[in-house]
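Project outcomes to date are best conveyed with an example. Our students and postdoctoral researchers have been running inverse folding experiments weekly, and each run begins with a structure described purely in tokens. The record below, which covers 485 residues, was selected by the lab manager from last quarter's runs and is presented without edits.
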């Protein structure tokens, strides 16, 4: 296994500076300004630079916010210890294979770490010490929890779960918590709530990139993500045993807290609004009137000059995570389902999944499209699946749209499937379904392939071949400002 070029978030940032662009920005305002700049960069700049905000308005120098660390695929490759010379498609496949092939390594308990350089307990707990951001103009408050990891333990002692959930800063010692139905962290909490108990939790901010990656990657129920993170790192995740909860705290984190989540019937708060990944204000109290769970914070630990990681969702036109590993996981799942000759899989946000195949038989494209709806990595939150031929690069949205415009007959090449697993965050969820907790939607599968029966008679492509295009771009890159990567 190739060694990682870093050991925590700080060393990852330094390594990332060597493989891609980055910018430090001093003096920005936490109230909307940083969020607007991050969104504009992610939307308008190809392969967006990593942004480091310091001297944030109202906060001392050194209390930094890191944004867009994974918005360029070379930084994603670096985070997984893979070659930064891979293409996007090669990278998503390599990540999936690494996740699949690595064996879990249980964490290793240590007595101390830089995380314990500063300790706040009891009345000294103050979350306002950190530059939590109001990311979007109409957000209902400041959110400290976006690039976070919530850790809780199954009440029956089976496993440790890690998950990434949005967290609103209500008070200096109280966080709002939004967890969609079906998320493992919520299922763990519910077991405690059903017994009238508060669920102990640890939350980290600015954690090791592999801890964060496993926190927002769905692993089978009953398996401990922290063990899988150790497998990807190639060494145990060093942990400190939380003195208030007994839960493992990844020792390399920038900030961590211990607390508990009471049953919502005992204590809860209005939450949001918050701009979510579909590009709308959704979830939380909006549309339901329901109060949401809270985290009562008992203790905070942080390094000197802590880094708060911003992973606030942006509208789908802005790149937050490039070469998302879920595409490679879907690729493996499709092959495990028996789909032959898949040449590429890519996700353009959760809404649009593209599968490229080399057609081998009549019905091959339909088999691939319907299988994509059923696989666990793409079953939730989706809207469209597009199946394309092998000459289309599924990571190139221009090529995908071209295939959809020229190879789809709307009357015969689109399947509509109802009753699919969705989310309360879906802005298209009808009020009646939302009230009934029927969080399902319909999906469309586009077969943007040459019709198998007469594919040899389909007009030939007039576009420059990929090989010639790559050759001329390389030859004339000193004259024409072709984008790098």
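After processing, the design step wrote out the following sequence:
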């Amino acid at each position: 296994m190739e060694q990682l070029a870093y050991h925590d978030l700080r060393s990852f940032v330094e390594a990332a500076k060597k493989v891609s662009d980055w910018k430090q920005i001093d003096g920005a305002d936490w109230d909307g300004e940083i969020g607007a700049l991050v969104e504009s960069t992610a939307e308008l700049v190809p392969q967006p630079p990593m942004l480091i905000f310091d001297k944030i308005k109202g906060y001392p120098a050194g209390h930094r916010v890191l944004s867009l660390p994974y918005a360029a695929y070379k930084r994603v490759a670096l985070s997984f210890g893979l070659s930064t010379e891979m293409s996007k498609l090669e990278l998503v496949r390599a990540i999936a294979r690494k996740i699949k092939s690595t064996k879990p390594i249980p964490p290793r308990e240590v007595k101390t770490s830089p995380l314990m350089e500063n300790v706040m307990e009891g009345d000294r707990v103050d979350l306002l010490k950190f530059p939590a951001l109001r990311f979007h103009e109409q957000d209902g408050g400041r959110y400290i929890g976006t690039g976070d990891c919530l850790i809780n333990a199954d009440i029956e002692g089976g496993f440790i779960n890690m998950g990434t959930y949005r967290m609103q800063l209500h008070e200096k010692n109280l966080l709002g918590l939004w967890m969609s139905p079906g998320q493992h962290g919520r299922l763990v909490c519910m077991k405690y709530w059903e017994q009238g108990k508060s669920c102990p939790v640890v939350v980290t901010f600015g954690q090791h990139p592999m801890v964060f990656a496993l926190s927002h990657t769905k692993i089978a129920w009953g398996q401990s993500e922290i063990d899988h993170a150790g497998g990807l790192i190639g060494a145990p995740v060093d942990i400190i045993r939380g003195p208030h909860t007994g839960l493992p705290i990844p020792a390399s984190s920038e900030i961590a807290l211990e607390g508990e989540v009471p049953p919502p019937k005992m204590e809860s708060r209005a939450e949001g609004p918050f701009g979510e990944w579909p590009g709308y204000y959704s979830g939380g109290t909006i549309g339901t009137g329901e109060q949401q769970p809270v985290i009562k914070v008992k203790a905070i630990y942080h390094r000197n000059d802590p880094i708060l990681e911003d992973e606030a969702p942006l509208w789908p036109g802005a790149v937050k995570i490039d070469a998302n590993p879920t595409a490679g996981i879907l690729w493996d799942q499709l092959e495990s389902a028996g789909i032959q000759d898949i040449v590429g899989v890519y996700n353009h946000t959760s809404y649009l999944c593209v599968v490229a195949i080399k057609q081998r038989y009549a019905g091959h494209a339909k088999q691939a499209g319907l299988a994509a709806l059923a696989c666990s990595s793409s079953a939730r939150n989706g809207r469209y699946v597009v199946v394309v031929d092998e000459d289309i690069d599924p990571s190139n949205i221009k090529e995908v749209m071209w295939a959809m415009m020229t190879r789809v007959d709307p009357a015969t090449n689109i399947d509509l499937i109802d009753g699919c697993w969705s989310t309360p965050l879906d802005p298209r969820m009808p009020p009646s379904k939302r009230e009934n907790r029927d969080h399902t939607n319909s999906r469309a599968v586009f077969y943007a392939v040459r019709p198998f029966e007469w594919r040899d008679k389909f007009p030939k492509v007039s576009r420059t071949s990929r090989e010639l295009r790559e050759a001329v771009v390389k030859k004339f890159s000193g004259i024409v400002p072709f984008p790098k990567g």
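The CA atoms of residues 169 and 175 lie 5 Å apart. The two ends are 25 Å apart (CA to CA). The training component of this project remains on track.
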